[in-house]
Amino acid sequence: MTILVAYATAKGSTRGIAERLGSCIEGLGQSVDVRPVADVSDVHSYDVIVFGSAIHNGQWLAEASDAVGRLRSQFEGRRVWAFSVSSVGVTSTTLSKRLARFLRRVTPEPGAVRILRDAADVRDHRFFAGVIAPGDWPGFGRVVFTLMGGHYGDARDWADVCAWAGAIAAESTRDTERRT
Ligand SMILES: Cc1cc2nc3c(=O)[nH]c(=O)nc-3n(C[C@H](O)[C@H](O)[C@H](O)COP(=O)(O)O)c2cc1C
């Protein structure tokens, strides 16, 4: 069985997470393809699909949302693991810890993930924190970022990324064994 990890990125941090998910899953003995969502036109050969996007303005990037619409009919019955890369992940953040705790409670899932839940067998959706560089929030955005206790840098929690990959690999192995 080959697992597809498809991602959409604007500045590269989501690609880094997708590649790390791929290498961690591969390290657990599964075969993996890691590809940008824009390059994915057919998912029939994959039993398990890991699908992720950077978050802009609370939503997945357009190319990721478009891909969900485009591939929707192919997703039926397939196991999908979704992830979103934003300022606030489950275990780390580029904002203040206090604000992050609040945002984790109130931030809704991106619309594209809700559509995926209707179309596929979605096993989990996880938020990871990404990277914020000076210039990502220009002008007034920089002021707001500072008021939110924001700090520039790479907040990706690689241990959490690899642990999630481990859950994907373990559940995929169990499902395959059950079916054979
Ligand atoms: C234009 C823009 C809009 C963003 N909007 C949000 C947002 O609504 N919520 C959030 O938590 N992070 C937001 N971010 C932060 C990004 O999600 C974060 O930097 C992420 O690591 C970007 O992933 P990428 O490097 O793959 O593009 C935004 C960043 C930019 C540049």
Provide the descriptors you would attach to this structure in a database record.
binds flavin mononucleotide; single chain; 8 strands; six-stranded mixed β-sheet; two-stranded antiparallel ribbon; 6 helices; alpha/beta; 180 residues; Rossmann fold
Structure notes:
This protein is of the alpha/beta class and 180 residues long. The protein has a single domain, classed as Rossmann fold (3-Layer(aba) Sandwich). Helix content is 43%, strand content 25%. The chain is built from six helices and eight strands; from the N terminus they run E-H-E-E-E-H-E-H-H-E-E-H-E-H. The strands form two sheets. Strands 1, 2, 3, 4, 5 and 6 form a six-stranded mixed beta sheet that branches. The protein has a two-stranded antiparallel sheet with strand order 7-8. Helix 1 links the parallel strand 1 and strand 2. Helix 1 packs across helix 6 and helix 2 packs parallel to helix 4. The longest helix has 22 residues. It is globular. The chain starts with a strand and ends with a helix. The mean pLDDT is 95.
